[in-house]
Amino acid sequence: MVLCRSWRTRFILLLPLIFLIPLLFSVSELHQKPIQREQRTNLSKKSNHIILGPAAGQGFPNRLQCEGLKAMNRILLPSLQKNLDISERVSFVSMFTVYNSSRRLKMESVDNNMDGKVIIGNTSYTKPERSIAILNTFINFIQVSMPRSQVLLLTDPAANLTMNRKNTTLFPVSGDYTRGQLMLQRIRSYIAFLESRLQQKFEIQNFVNHYIFTDSDVAIVDDLGHLFENYPDFHLALTFRNNKDQPLNSGFIAVRGTLDGIRKSKIFLEEVLEIYSSKYIKASRMLGDQLALAWVVRSHISFTTELFQKPEAFSAEINGSSILFLPCAIFNWTPPEGAGQFHGMPLDVKVVHFKGSRKRLMLEAWNYYNKTGSTSDMLCLILRSGRAKYDF
Predict the structure, then answer these.
(1) Distance from C-alpha of 365 to C-alpha of 374, rounded to nearest angstrom
(2) Collapsing DSSP states into helix, strand and coil, what is residue 212?
(3) Residue 315 pairs with which residues in a beta bridge?
(4) What pLDDT score was predicted for residue 281?
(5) Could you read off the pLDDT of 119-139 as tens digits, one per residue?
(6) Which of 86, 170, 186, 255 has the highest CB neighbour number within 10 Å of its CB?
C-alpha cells in the first residue's frame, strides 16, 4: 500500500515534466530555425569582393594546378592564328544592347537600398556602365589572345550605341530587343547576319572569314584559329555538356566562313528558330534557345547520352550539314557557382564563360591580368574565386 502510494506521488510530480519537455524542444527548434535560416541566407548572399577558396582539381591529371595565385603547370603554346593563311581570318560576333531607362534604375535603387553602383578596383559602375565594362573586357581578351580578329556587335538600331574600339564594328539589326524576347532575337540576329554575308559572295570567294558567335560575358584565353584547321570538314560547331535536359549551350557557335558553311549554318539556325517559336516560346526570355537546339539535334541524329558524357569532340550530319560538337569543358568552361561537384579547370581551356552573377569575376580577372601580364596566373584567380556568388 505504501509502495503504491509512493508510485502515485512520483507520477503526479513527474506529470508536469511530461508536458513541459515537448514544449522545451519546440522552443529550442524555434531558436534554431532562425539561425539556420540566417545561415542559409548568408550562404546565398552575393559577395561584393573577390573571395579566394581552394583551387579545385588539385592532384587531378590534365587540370590546372595552382600554388596560391601562381599557375604551376599551364604552358601557353605559340599562337596558331599567326600561321593561318593571310586569306583567312576569325571574327567574333556578339549581340549587345543596354537597358538604361531612368525608371529601371530608380526601381533598382529602391530594391537594393543603394544608388545602383558597385565598385570594382578603383572604378565605380552604374548598371549600364557595368554592361559596357563587360563588353570592353570581352573585346580586351580577344585583342590579347587573337589580335588579328575583328569583333562585330549585333545591336538594336534604336539603342543609339557608339563604340570606339579598334577592330570593332557595330552591325544594326532591327527586331524586338525587349528582355522577354532577347534570346529569341539573338537567333534572329544571327540569321540576319549570315544572310548579309551570303550577299557578299565575291568577298567570301576571295577571302575566308570564319565566325564565332559568342555571348559578350566570355573571355577568350587562347587562340581559336586552330579550330578551323584541326577540324577542316565542319560547317557549324556547337558546345555540349553532360546535361540530359540541356546538353547544348548556345553561348558559343562557330561557323566556317565558306559559302557552303555560311549557307548551311543559316539553314540550321532557321530550323532552330522555327522550333523555338513553335515549341518553346514560353521560354523566350531564357533557355528556350538551348531547348530548341537540343530538340533539333535529337530529331536528326540518334541521340545517345554516352556521346555527351565524355568531354571529347565528335561530328554528326544534320540535314546535309556537318555539325561539330565541342566540349564545354574546353570551349565554354564556366566557373561553378555555389556547391556541386567540380574537378577543376582543364589545362587546354580556350573560353571562360562568366554566366549570371560571375560577371564581377570577369572584370576582376581582367584587372589581375593587367597587373601580372600572366594568363595562366589569371586563370588561377578565376579557379579559386569561381564558386563564390558575386553581385552581377
Answers:
(1) 11
(2) strand
(3) 324
(4) 84
(5) 887 888 887 888 899 999 999
(6) 255
Best CA proximity match to 141, nearest among 362, 330, 356: 362
CA distance 242 to 56: 19
Reduced to 3 states (helix: H, G, I; strand: E, B; else coil), residue 232 is coil
Q: How many domains does the chain have?
A: 1
Task: Please state whether beta strands 168-172 and 151-155 pair in parallel, antiparallel, or not at all (unpaired).
Answer: parallel
Question: Residue 182 belongs to what domain range?
Answer: 66-385
Quote the pLDDT of residue 299: 86
For residue 376, give the 3-state DSSP assignment: helix
**Quick check: is 255 in a domain?**
yes
Task: Return the percentage of the chain with pLDDT > 90, whole number.
Answer: 53
Q: Pull the grid cell for residue 325.
A: 560538337
Sole residue written with cell 577571302: 207
The Cα angle at residue 241 between residues 357 and 309, in degrees rounded to 5: 145
Which tens digit of pLDDT belongs to each residue from 342-372? 789 999 999 999 988 889 999 999 999 999 9
The DSSP letter of residue 278 is: H
Instruction: Quote the CA–CA distance of 384 and 370 in Å, as a whole number.
Output: 18
pLDDT of residue 86: 63
Name the grid cell of 295.
530538340
354 falls within a domain = yes
Q: Average model confidence (pLDDT) for the chain?
A: 81
Is 280 part of a structural domain of the chain?
A: yes
Q: Using N-to-C axis directions, what is the helix angle for 288-300 and 259-279, rounded to 10°?
A: 110
Q: How far is Cα 312 from Cα 328, in angstroms, rounded to an integer?
A: 10
Name the percent of the chain in helix, strand, coil, to the closest 5.
45, 20, 35
CATH assignment at residue 105: 3.90.550.10
Band of the pLDDT at 100, cuts 50, 70, 90? Answer: low
Q: Give the distance between the most distant pair of CA atoms in the chain.
A: 116
Determine how β-strand 236-240 pairs with β-strand 321-327: parallel
**Global confidence as pTM:** 0.82
Contact present, 380 and 329 (Cβ < 8 Å): no
- Is 12 contained in some domain? no
